[in-house]
Each structure stands twice: as C-alpha cells, then as structure tokens.
Amino acid sequence: MDTEALRSFVRAAELGRFQRTAEELGVTQQAVSKRIAGLERELGVRLFARTARGVELTLDGQAFLPHARSVVAAVERAVAAVRPGSRALRIDVLGLRSAQAVVLHEYWRSHPGTDLDVVTLRVTDPGVAVAAVAAGEVDASFRSVTDPGALPPDVRMIHAFDSPLELLVGPRHPLASARRLTPAQLRGHRIWVPGIAPGSEWAVFYDELATEFDLRVDAAGPHFGDEVLLDTLAESADVATFVGARDRYIWPTHYDLRRVPITDPVLAYPLSLLLPATNPHPGLRALLTHLDTLPEPPEPVWRPSWAPPVRPKESRHARRPTDAHPQ
Amino acid sequence: MDTEALRSFVRAAELGRFQRTAEELGVTQQAVSKRIAGLERELGVRLFARTARGVELTLDGQAFLPHARSVVAAVERAVAAVRPGSRALRIDVLGLRSAQAVVLHEYWRSHPGTDLDVVTLRVTDPGVAVAAVAAGEVDASFRSVTDPGALPPDVRMIHAFDSPLELLVGPRHPLASARRLTPAQLRGHRIWVPGIAPGSEWAVFYDELATEFDLRVDAAGPHFGDEVLLDTLAESADVATFVGARDRYIWPTHYDLRRVPITDPVLAYPLSLLLPATNPHPGLRALLTHLDTLPEPPEPVWRPSWAPPVRPKESRHARRPTDAHPQ
DNA sequence: GCGTACCCACAACGATTGGTTGTGGGTACG
DNA sequence: CGTACCCACAACCAATCGTTGTGGGTACGC
C-alpha cells in the first residue's frame, strides 16, 4: 500500500473533489483518480461515490478514513523520528551508571517533555565516536580526544563538566576511615581500575595521573563487571579504586564501602562533549545551558594536559553551539 | 513510502538477515535489499549496518523501528476496517430515534466490546436499501419490502420485532385521558403522520391500516422535523399521531403529551431485517439472538398482509442466518 | 593458510506501476 | 439547451520493482 495514495484519499475526503486535491498535492486530477482507484482495488471496496459535483465517501470510505489518517500520522512520526534536527536528541555515554548518564538524567528530569535518547556506542576508540558524531549518527558524545590534531574540522570538543575522583575502599583498607585524602597520601597504595581500554582517553588520563603524582594505578586484568569489582573491594585490605564523584554505584549494606573525596588538589577527570561543528541538534543548546549550571570543584584542581579549556560561565553563555558557524 | 518495505524492514530487524526475511515474505534476497535501500534513500539515513553475519540496526534504525511497527499495525487495522466479514457490523436504521436504533443501542450495551456501526442510508426507496445489502455496503437494514417478488435471491428478509403503535396526543385532545384505546375508538379522529415518503413501506403500511380499520391517516404536508410535530400536538385539540412504543421522543414537560397504547388488536408495525442470503456478517448472529429475547406484543395482534412470518422462538434458534446457504 | 559457506550489494533485464496528456461521458445550472 | 465542471478511460512514457546472475567480503573449519 502506498502512503501517498492514503494521503490523497484523506485530502480528497476532506475536499470532496479530486481536482482540488490534485492541485494541492501537485499532481494531475487523473493521478489522484488512479491512486484512489488503486486503493479501492487493493481493499476490494468502493471508497468514494462519484457524483457530478465531486466525490463523497461511501460507508466503507467513512469507516476507512480515520484509519487512513492514523496511518498517515504514524508515517509522519516515523519520518520525524529519524530526520536529523527534528528527531530526539541522541547522546552517547560510556555507560548508564557513569556520571555522564547521571547528569543527563538530571537534565531530562528538569526538562520534562524533552525527547532524549541516551545511547551507548560501545566502542573503545574515541576516534569511532568522533566519526559517529561527524556522520550525525549521534548528536553528541561524552568522549574526549587527547590529541587535538586527531579532531577533524567538522567536530568540536568542548568542556562539559569536571568529574572529581574519589577513592572507593573497603572497611579493612588502611585509608578507610579518612574523611578526605590528598594525592600524596595515595602514594604506595595499589589502585585497581579494571576495564580501562588501552588507547582510550581514560588510559591516557590514568597514565598521566600516575606519572604526575607517582601513583600505582593498575588497569591490568579483565573487567568482570562492577559487581566483581565492588565484591573484591569489600573483601580486600589493600585494594582501592577510583570512582567519579557522580558515578552511580550501588552495593549491599554489609559491604560497608566508603567513598573518600580527594583534595589539594582535586583530581578532575575533564568530561568533554564531542559535537558537530556545524548544524548541531537544536536540543543541544538547552543541554549545554544545563551543563553550565553544574558546580565546579573547589580550587586547587588538577586536570590532565589535554583537557579542553574551561571557559568562564559568562563567556559560555555568550558562545552557544547554535551560534557557531565555522567556515 | 511503501508499506511493504516497512514490513520488510520490521521483519529484517527482528531476524537480522535479509535472506531469511526474503524467504518469509516470498521474495528474493535482492528484493529485500532493494526495499531497505529504497527506504534508507527516502529517509536519508542508514537503517542497518551490514556485517558478514547479516545486518544489525543502526541507532537510527532502532529509533525508526517502533514507528515502523506502528505504521504497519495501523495499516492492518485500516484494511480490517473495510474487509467484509472482519469489519464492524454495519446496520442501517431509518433514524437514530427510531425503535430500531433503540433496540440496537440496547444490544450494544448488553454486548460490550462489540464493534457496531449504526448508519442511516437516508434513502426512501427500500429497493435502494436492498441493493446496499446485496452489495455488502451494509450488513443489514431495518427496512421492509412489501412486494416479495421485489426481493432478489441474494437478499433475505426476516422478521426482527414488532413495534406496537401508540397514539401520541396533546392534553386538549378528546382522547388525552384514555388509559388505552382500540382501533375502533380512533375512527373519525384525524391522525397526522408527516414525513412518510410515498412508495416507502411505511406508506403501504398506513394505507392498509387506514383501509382495514376505516381510519383517517393523513400523511400530507412536508415534514419539518419532530420538534414541529410535537409542538403542533401540544397545541392542537384535534390532531394526534402514531408513534412506535419504543420510539424515542423527548418533549418539554409543559407540553404534557401522552402516549396511549392501542389494544384489541395491537397494531404492530413489523420491523424486518434485510440481510444477505449468503455469507452474512458473523456479528449478525449475536444480534439476531438478541432480537429473539425481545418481548412480543400480547394477542390479539394485527399485522399488515405483507408482514414476514413471525417464527416461533425455538425454530428461530434452529434456523440462524449463518446456517443458511441457499444454492 | 586457504577453501568453503554464507551474507549482502551490484548489474542487467523484463514486467508492472505511476505519472503525464488528451478525450469523453455525465450531471447540475443558467 | 448550451455551458461549466467533474471524474474516468486510453495511450504513452518513465521510473520502479521484481527477477536472475554475479561479485566482494567476512567468519569458520580443515
């Protein structure tokens, strides 16, 4: 069944004339006549009674009309669902329990009615995420490229928000009772961060962090999921891990894990947003405005060398992505 | 947009293989490939990622899928809405305030969920209604043919129920205070029944009734609607009219109109149902069963000569329309 | 490491469809 | 009774959709 024929049927039912319908749809009267005739042949019933003054619906036509409308409307929605610019804002996050997803959820709750698709591309190489953004497959991605030269001209990377690291430890760990810790106090302790894909921006981040503060950050071994990680931490007296302050972790009460903030300096993982340099999704503007409202960690803050600049709030507002039109 | 392509898309998304999809749909793999390619071209996005093991949905494909399903479902419903046998039971009544419509409403209330279309063909000649039934435009019509020879072989007429006449009079009418009346007592009074189309079965009915009981039944003058009729009755001291016992009439309280039953004999207008002799709508069976439960007027009953036979209840049940397969 | 099996895409070709223009029949209206 | 208007039919052309045949690419097994 051709949806163009359905559209013609609906309009013809409203206008009562094939001629007018044809003019509105930009075809000849004969084309409309054939479309309707085809529909009638396909359905096996007569939809219109032809009169000298035009056409009017038969009983079958009357019964068919609301359904035809609903098909046409469904087609409209289907097309809109994938039309770049009018479809739901589609954001790539690393995982649904990450700080990125938490922030997106906050954004969505504070903007009821917003169409938002939170997706996970499940790729380790940030270059693939860049390509997905460039191709318009996602409207933005919370990924970072550590080498500015690797960023093609049609993709921009901007600072989204800082994710301050916290130490997650079990009750038997020597640092378990600390209210806060400095990076220097972590020296010599084994920090286990499984699931860091080699070559990803996270690997680069922890490399630089370990070098800068002389830490033992251990990414070795396969990642069996957060459950295994939390289970191990609860048991161990010498293993700790880093988590983002807003990351969502849930464990049984008897695990008695503690999140210890790190200060002087705060260790900030700079969450960035990759987005198209031209014609970004209109919904992005509201999201960026929301990101501006997130609190910044108190100084002093350490960030890796490749962190995109944190623009002051007033200039952020002055330079919104929809205003950006390079070249 | 072609709905066959949408169907192919939905199935391919479920199966993950064009090959299997093509087999299920009875076309070649290349045809499915072209349908999807056409859809992708029309939408301007890629719906599937082609892999060596088949295909898998892209993000746009995932966003499109539920909408495609809803279009396909809407098309199914649209087709079903006009497919003879599966569409709603469609019954023609003379008017929405007639006893026929009242009975249909009762039926619908006692059979929740039944799909029922009560329509008014708005034709005076019962032959047109017969043609509509024969053509399947309506599944049944509460009309009667008074000449059995005029009934084509593919349309049957059966007795539906009797509608006993009542006299409707205003408070100043000499018969206003009667509790009941016999036809003999009506003699000499002017009975005004506007809106009876010449040639219709109602005209034949009132002709025969007037002759049989020597009554003055006056159908002259245009019919300006029930409001005018009721208004006239309320004022007049010498005009009365006939109404069916189950007809729905509403008038302001101060009109003070009275419905007076007529007995010895009861004057029964025999409401008939025209229905196809072959392949009647399956929903008709339940309707006929419901008609069987309606009470019959107490004897003695006068009916016109052309009234179809009133079959006893037990035989009515034995001979249902779905059992009838002439030739 | 290479053949095999499997999958999808491309090419070519015939049948069908959907569009056009031109024409005709039928009904209301003056 | 002529005119205006509307829809249907015929003929023709282009585009589409189906087919068969073929090719490229990837996973899997020997």
UniProtKB/TrEMBL annotation, chains A, B:
Residues 1-58 form the HTH lysR-type domain. Keywords: DNA-binding, Transcription, Transcription regulation. Residues 297-310 have a biased composition (Pro residues). Residues 311-327 have a biased composition (Basic and acidic residues). Residues 297-327 are annotated as: Disordered. This is LysR family transcriptional regulator. Pfam families: HTH_1, LysR_substrate. Belongs to the LysR transcriptional regulatory family. PANTHER family: HCA OPERON TRANSCRIPTIONAL ACTIVATOR HCAR (PTHR30346:SF0), TRANSCRIPTIONAL DUAL REGULATOR HCAR-RELATED (PTHR30346). The lineage of its organism: Bacteria, Bacillati, Actinomycetota, Actinomycetes, Kitasatosporales. The keyword Glycoprotein does not apply. InterPro entries: LysR_HTH_N, LysR_subst-bd, WH-like_DNA-bd_sf, WH_DNA-bd_sf.
